[in-house]
Design brief:
four-stranded mixed sheet, 459 residues, Rossmann fold, alpha/beta, six-stranded parallel sheet
Length: 459
């Protein structure tokens, strides 16, 4: 815990001073906020749309066991197979079994944060598999040997020049390639992989109980190729992604699109309900859906934390968080960064377990995340809740005891300013940061100034 906290703080200090990083993120966030402002205009009453989306997710969580059973029944009736995974190990064991049954060697993946959660790519490579990310942003960071920077836009931290340089080094493409030419190069490269892949792996934006369907939302079309061209499709989805009815997508899809990218609707909205039927020519021969718990049931049992399971992974809280924009996504060390990552990471079975409790401290508690959440999650309240769950260190206990003693002691509060300034710099100056000037106590205490003001008013 202490080591993880120090690693986080050291990385945060470096990234906060990186002017190039700040410039790239400010530019990309500026474009995002402009698009979202335009996208929100599609709603006649945005507040009601958010309330409706929140109600849909809350209803699903309130009835989650029954809906999961209904989903399993309907998916199996559609010809798919449902696998229950209590933790990462069970999910990976299930995937390994399928891979071996299929004698697979080549795997294509569409964008999925839950596969990052269970470190699937690393395991597939250990098993001797060739695995390729097919989302453009994921392809870029995989090529660079990095993890996704953002839950929606994995390569947000890279400029066009950075990507051109990367591709020049890895693939010998011209340095002066435009974004369109770089994208075309990736498209051609991926087409070959789709054609020869044995298995396609995806996540899922929503699970629909009444139809037994997995819903995927993308802008590039790679998810459709991943889930239809190979013989086998494996969808790994967290149990909290459930909604009760297909009709609920009427609200959930535009809300996710608007807050995620500023679009009225994403380009590709795919509903998958098992493999191809007997008379169908196209589609996968077999579809597996792995329902992953990995700590979610424990969160559901917590009266406060269960609200975080309403998250639809739009990334809005990250895009409105001053801390995330300053220190960047990789600094968090968890697949889930920003406010939502700080809330859920300590409670999910993400390796190494127990190394994410400090993330809830990485917040200004300004409330912007809660204000901009499309399903109304009280994120800054949950950050405070997480802090209460973390056991304070002995130093923290001593400091808070000293502070309590001081503020309850009038003589200490009225002590000379030079003494308070000396003690403040001595005990808190270093933690305040070398880049900031420690506040200076006024020569007169608040009580003295208040009494003088009262006397002046009486005259």
């Amino acid at each position: 815990m202490k080591k993880a906290r120090k690693v986080f703080l050291d990385a945060a200090k470096i990234k906060a001073k990186d002017a190039g990083h700040t410039q790239r993120i400010d530019f990309n966030m500026g474009k995002y906020h402009h698009k979202v402002a335009v996208g929100k205009q599609q709603f006649e009453d945005l507040a009601k749309a958010k309330q409706a989306a929140k109600a849909i997710k809350k209803e699903a969580l309130d009835n989650l066991p029954a809906l999961l059973m209904e989903f399993e029944s309907k998916m199996q009736a559609n010809g798919g197979e449902v696998i229950w995974a209590e933790d990462s190990k069970q999910a990976l064991d299930a995937i390994y079994t399928i891979v071996k049954q299929q004698a697979a060697t080549t795997i294509v993946k569409s964008k999925s944060m839950i596969t990052e959660e269970i470190e699937l790519n690393e395991q597939l490579q250990k098993w001797g598999m060739e695995v390729l990310e097919t989302d453009l942003g994921e392809f870029i960071v995989q090529t660079k040997g990095e993890k996704p920077y953002h839950i929606v836009t994995p390569a947000m931290h890279l400029s066009k020049g950075d990507i051109a340089q990367l591709f020049n080094t890895k693939f010998d493409t011209p340095l002066d390639y435009s974004p369109e030419e770089l994208t075309h190069f990736v498209r051609l490269r991926l087409r070959e992989q789709f054609a020869k892949a044995d298995i396609g792996i995806s996540g899922g934006n929503f699970l629909v109980a009444d139809t037994g369907s997995v819903v995927l939302v993308t802008n590039e079309g790679n998810a459709r190729l991943t889930t239809t061209l190979p013989k086998v499709h494996i969808a790994i989805v967290g149990i909290e992604k459930m909604i009760a009815r297909l009709a609920d997508l009427e609200i959930m899809l535009p809300v996710l699109s608007t807050f995620g990218t500023g679009q009225q609707l994403t380009v590709y909205n795919t509903i998958l309900s098992g493999g191809k039927r007997n008379k169908e020519v196209d589609g996968v021969e077999k579809m597996y859906v792995i329902l992953l718990d990995n700590g979610r049931s424990t969160m559901l049992a917590d009266e406060k934390l269960q609200e975080a399971l309403q998250c639809i992974r739009c990334g809005s809280c990250l895009n409105n968080c001053p801390v995330y924009q300053t220190i960047g996504g990789h600094t968090y060390g968890s697949p889930y960064s920003g406010p939502i990552g700080a809330v859920i990471s300590p409670h999910l079975g993400i390796a190494p377990k127990g190394n994410y409790n400090h993330l809830s401290e990485a917040s200004s508690l300004c409330g912007s995340c809660s204000e901009n959440c499309p399903v109304g999650i009280d994120l800054h309240g949950l950050l405070l809740h997480n802090r209460t769950l973390a056991e304070p260190t002995m130093i923290e206990q001593m400091l808070w005891s000293s502070w309590k003693y001081g503020v309850l002691n009038r003589e200490l509060m009225n002590s000379p300013a030079f003494l308070k300034n000396t003690l403040g710099n001595l005990f808190f100056g270093k933690s305040w940061g070398a880049e900031r000037t420690f506040p200076i106590f006024d020569k007169k205490s608040f009580q003295q100034q208040w009494l003088e003001r009262q006397r002046g008013q009486e005259k």
